[in-house]
Write a structure and sequence with these properties.
six-stranded mixed beta sheet; single chain; 16 helices; alpha/beta
Length: 525
Amino acid sequence: MVRSGTGPDAEPAKGPASFLLSIWFQCALAIAGGVWWAFCFDERPGLVVPLAATAPLLLITATVPGPGRRLWLGWLHGTVAWLVAVPWIASTLTLHGGLPSVASASLLTLLALYLGLYHGLFCWLAGPALARRDVLSLLLVPAVWVSLEWVRGLGPSGFPWNLLGYAWVDVPGALDVTRWVGSHGLSGLVVAFGLALLGLADGKTRRFAAVAVAVVVALLGVARWTNPDWPPRAASPLEVRLQQPNIHMETVEMQQESAAVRLTRIQTNYQSLLAFSRLSCEPGALVVWPESAGWPYELERDAAFARDLEDLVAGGCSLLFNSTRRFGSGDEEGAYNSAYLLNPSEGAAERQIYDKMHLVPFGEYVPFGRLLPRLRQLARNTGSYSPGHEVRLLDHGDVRLGVSICFEIVFPAQVAARVRRGASVLVTMTNDSWYGRTWAPYQHLRPARFRAAENSRPLIRAAITGISAVINHRGETEMIAPIDEVYGLDTPVFPLDRMTLFTRAPLLVPLLCLALAAFAILRGR
């Protein structure tokens, strides 16, 4: 039985407690809670801020009467959280897409309203389960959140950005536990921990809540203790020479410069990158370029570019880089955003290719582009890219490279598929220069750390302006390049071949949570 004024569908209380149920307090709680949530995804959230970040949302879910009010208050919470966390989307649309500031802000608001709806649905669906205040709710309520978070990332236009579990990137043991339950499972653990913290404030549930907190802490401790710092290493390490050339993408103003000025700038950047790479080209080493490092040149269309790269590889190193790959002709011409690996061999260098499978909406293709031709201008290549159809590993000697291009790294199951195919080292190449010195590069670094930890694989991250990094199998950054600096990272990387529980069954936790969430909804009714 829920006491009057404490359950989500109870009658409003009277007296001092009614203040907690007043609409003004609830709105302030939703807005402040959204800001708090957003700051869990800044440059470095630390330990204290993320631990109780779910408390305001859970308090709304537990105390607000009426499912309708819970829905829109949760929606307000989520909308504020996304507006504060990803404002760089609007500045990117203006700076690189040429949209007026008002139009960019409007599109950002629409995106935040859509993403915030998931917070509202959580409050609406989880309210009845949380009202019971029993042991089972500690499982069912997190399952509702995990289900919604997983659904948000589905489909060609899925957006699994800033998963709740990423907020715990600095919490000891959090990265380690993902090798069992993945990032979505960690998100559920974050919600369960928030529920336990709220329970500590209630005399009737304090003892159970203390036990729940202890269980979560113990689980993190066991995960960290059982994940060795130095797993069995390959006899021959992969010598990596990672290049961060600090080449910024053209803004709308730069595109209006004379052809001679643009060409000079492009040539200067390219020659600097090439000279930097020649210094790093040692026999047997793997030189890694970020996404768009050779833009606008294309390997299969620019003969001088191809000769330069052949000459580089002739020095004995291999080169992993990104380039557009065309297919078809005339009106049927299309393009892939591809990763190339050039290995030295007698005669021409050996070429291996991986075509990006998950494209960025409005960046590499335009959804419904034929119906909305005006939106095509938002894509750098006018929405011309097509998705690849096959997970291909690139072989550097005995090392099998699982490459993710830019946005692909945020999809846990896709990266796990590369490891199941035999990838012993993960690589992600990205171009975060679109976003400048915002939270975006730091937010994009986190998924790379979690993909490494989930699959127990070292990961190489090459970013054109930063943040480039070498990440070990536990998700820890062993080497990192400062943002907006020309930088090189030279290090041996040791391939691994063991598979984690998450790698073997990446959908186990989301599907289990989906079943539990359905049970929670039926139980609430």
